[in-house]
């Protein structure tokens, strides 16, 4: 059974549990608010633990001994996460949304560059590929937005989200925070199509970065990586609700799949 077939099977089970309303919806949103904020920041070197992130975001309690920047990153990423859910209705992502997500996340880090495309050249440490030139950022973002509007329905929703992540991070339009905005955009696309947020834990950082680098030549492994992360979100969600996971038989290698 392919990744997409497994995803669709789990998604069918999750859809049968809908609609999520009231306290249930609140709990789901808060669970992923903490999880996405912590994992996305941790991938970039933020020192807060998941527990510290939870206490800071939910209770407003600062964490002694942690850098002020790390706490700003957590609180403001959570605000950007909340903004994602305002975009559910129209099922599209506009340039203004990209800029606002960055502004929400970055305004306490560097107000001058928050929600503003970079005006300096940058490069990604360890990468063999250049990012977009300053003078081409605006046009490439506009191309990306046109691609989202015209091509979205040609892909499976999770494949589209993975490609959106890849395309955005290759442009690298901001001075800093591009990875976090890429993951916010990816997850905005996922929740717009009724999928759960896909979390990338810091333990997978090396794989994640390596597959993004390889995606310059072949993006299938990176797409499969994101499909796997979404599948794990689906499994975790069903376990939290104590819903039995389906038995999926065997994969192409004869191994049992649970």
TrEMBL record:
Keyword ATP-binding on entry: yes
Keywords (A to Z) from UniProt: ATP-binding, Nucleotide-binding
Listed name of the protein: Fic/DOC family protein
Matches recorded under InterPro entries: Fido (IPR003812), Fido-like_dom_sf (IPR036597), Fido_containing (IPR040198)
PANTHER family: FIDO DOMAIN-CONTAINING PROTEIN, FIDO DOMAIN-CONTAINING PROTEIN DDB_G0283145
Sequence ranges assigned to domain Fido in this UniProt record: 93-228
Binding residues for ATP: 176-183
Any Pfam family matching the protein: Fic
Organism annotation: Tissierella creatinophila DSM 6911
Residue positions of the active site: 172
Molecular function per GO: ATP binding
Residues under site feature: Important for autoinhibition of adenylyltransferase activity: 44
